[in-house]
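re the bet — no i am not wrong, look at it urself. input seq straight from the record:
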Amino acid sequence: MTAAALVYLAHSLLRFRNFEAKGYDLGIFDQAVRQYSLFKAPIVPIKGEDFHLLGDHFHPIIAAFAPLYWLMDDPRVLNIGMIGLLVSTAIPVYLVVRGWFSHLPALLAAVALLLFWPFQALVNWDFHEIAFGVPIIAWVIWAIERNRMWLAVGLGASLLLVREDMGVTLIALALVLALKRAWLPAAVTAVLGVLGYWFAVEVVIPHFSAAGEFGYWQFTALGPSAGAAVVFLLTQPWNALVILFDQPGKVGLWALHFLPLLLLPFASPYVILGAPILLSRLFNDRENVWAVIYQYDAILAPIFLLAGFDVARRIISRWPRFKPLAVGLPGAVIAVGLVGTLAFPGVFPLQRTITAENWSMNERAQAHERAVAAIPDGVCVEAADTAVPHLVNRTSVGLNGTTDEENLSWLIIDDQVDELGGSDPLTPQEAFDRAQRLGFEVVIEDDEGLWVLQRDLGDSADAGAECAEYLQR
């Protein structure tokens, strides 16, 4: 755990120093949690003017990290806190596997988890609310295996604070509890899941959303609405199955999750816990969520790993000659992790840190330093996505095109990207045209593709004072 924490932390801090961390998502969550630490609503300028983050997703659990900002006023505290969550997951995984086998397989299971690609992907993503669910779901399985079903219900209920779709995961947990013949805990969990999902999607998010509704229905392959999707799944399950494998990226996602685990998780009831998260991605319209570089897989890693061990112990119990499977299973995952970390940085991003590829700053990172240093404190600024995390602790910063133009006084435009980020991104040319219309003047010109522009607000300076107030108690 210590070794993993040090490698994760080195990779994370190097990403930040090299301006690889981005406004999406580190900057967004910094602004939200920072506002919580100031006892304010989570208003996130990166997402838009007066954008309340609870109108986007339901994740109040991130407020638990607010005290970190009382210790260190820096977005990297989120990196540190997230790494703590990930590394701590090794404890319930170790305890569950030790209960099934012995110390050595349990220790290898912990190593396998900490080396596996889903954890590397989340560390490389800098921060995401799903990190809170990773240790919780592992402790849920531990509680079930200790026959502490009501504890499993309580832990499962806490997942409702992680993300709105965890309500569906609670329904999956109810199925697992039912298979364990814990009928009343299963019923309570199912009710909590339905009510939790309804409360998040139909009450909280619409209340805080500018559009007045939950805006993430992106499963049109199943139908135009949730109701239509249920009908499709029930009446045409064979067509639904085809959708899960109809793209190479989807096949790759299946393979990377299950081949290192020798396909064993499919025979365990615990695989049901991961089904809503995995299937919702594969049914999603957005191709990017099928990729293996995102944060979504981290919560699946302990589920599928423990599901694999669950099947392995059943096999060994029935056929003792397969006893080597107890160390062979985690050994296979560790082997994939080691080979991947040394040779495949696209899937195992820690390779760049292990091989020292990212230990030095390149010229573009140094240009970012100069651009950020040119921005004064307490102003409203729109910045390149890669510059945003370095401005969140001293300015009101958004992406290009997200800020009230009356308050905006500084810009950082990156002309080496196709789009400048955000839900409605500008192209660099559109950003330059807007800057010219608003009367901005160049301060730094084309420094490795970065431009810094400034304008004097003049008589509207009082409006600009709102920017300084954003970070004040």
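see?? DSSP finds 21 helices and five strands in the chain. told u. also The chain has two domains: 2-354, 363-469. so pay up
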